[in-house]
Specification:
Elements: E1 2-10, E2 15-23, E3 44-49, H1 60-69, E4 71-75, H2 93-109, E5 118-123, H3 125-136, E6 143-147, H4 153-156, H5 170-177, H6 190-199, E7 207-212, H7 218-230, E8 235-240, H8 246-260
Parallel strand pairs: 3-4, 3-5, 5-6, 6-7, 7-8
Antiparallel strand pairs: 1-2, 2-4
């Protein structure tokens, strides 16, 4: 295998940024690729989005899945900004991942040239990011896998100065999501993006969702799944025993990779 750490200059963020990339190469064919039908096709690419407070490191089991399924894996880091474009200039994290980084991978490594070979996935905050970016750039990402997604828009709508959740305060949410009185109707709400694609007559990428039955975000995920059902959007939605942790996510990264392929 090859694990690559790349520094590039981001125009969206107006500064140098680092990201990691896993490439399933470097093994003799008899060690890995034979007999393995996933090596009878070109390598596909999955953008893996980390959660809140996570540096995007410690992906050893995910590397094994990349080798097993012949997947190049890209691990961007966006701090705690939910993979969104903030109102302030130089903080366009959504554009960085959804446009700039994809174009960089295409030009530099010759990967993800077609959306059928380009997928996006993530857990918690990264699950929200996978949904938001997949729905924002449906011509780029062929499939979306969102695990234990932090679909918190309805929970923070209407917050006022001085309010807080157990995770963060009003000022943080206002900085990341913009006007919290308008968030439900804004493009920072994945529900709004679904309705927008439907009005424009555009295809919605296939969606895979999973959440543990002991996860504190379970009701948020159920609510979004019910929204999809109400709006005639098909999605693979799974609940199974599990908490908000890597034990659950590792299991469903593999299940979602199988679904993607």
């Amino acid at each position: 295998m090859s694990l690559i750490k790349v520094e590039m200059f981001s125009n969206s963020l107006s500064r140098p940024v680092m990201f990691e990339m896993f490439m399933p190469i470097g093994f003799r064919p008899d060690q890995l690729t034979q007999p393995n039908p996933h090596y009878d096709r070109p390598c596909k690419t999955v953008f893996i989005l980390h959660g809140f407070t996570c540096w995007g490191r410690g992906w050893e089991y995910i590397y094994e899945l990349g080798m097993k399924y012949n997947l190049a894996l890209v691990f961007p880091t966006v701090e705690n900004c939910f993979y969104l474009d903030l109102d302030a200039s130089t903080f366009k994290y959504g554009t960085f991942v959804g446009v700039e980084l994809v174009e960089y991978i295409r030009k530099t490594f010759g990967l993800c040239q077609e959306k059928e070979d380009t997928f996006i996935s993530g857990f918690s905050m990264g699950g929200f990011g996978a949904l938001h970016l997949g729905l924002s750039y449906p011509e780029t990402f062929g499939k979306i896998a969102a695990l234990s997604s932090a679909l918190i828009v309805h929970g923070i709508a209407g917050m006022k100065p001085g309010d807080a959740t157990p995770v963060a305060n009003y000022d943080y949410y206002r900085n990341v999501f913009g006007d919290l009185d308008q968030i439900i109707e804004s493009d920072k709400n994945p529900e709004t993006l679904v309705k927008k694609l439907q009005l424009e007559g555009k295809l919605i990428p296939p969606i895979y969702m999973a959440c543990g039955t002991e996860d504190f975000l379970l009701e948020n995920n159920r609510q979004f799944h019910q929204f999809l059902i109400k709006n005639n959007v098909k999605a693979n939605y799974i609940e199974s025993p599990g908490n908000h942790d890597m034990n659950f996510w590792n299991t469903y990264f593999e299940k979602s990779f199988k679904w993607m392929l």
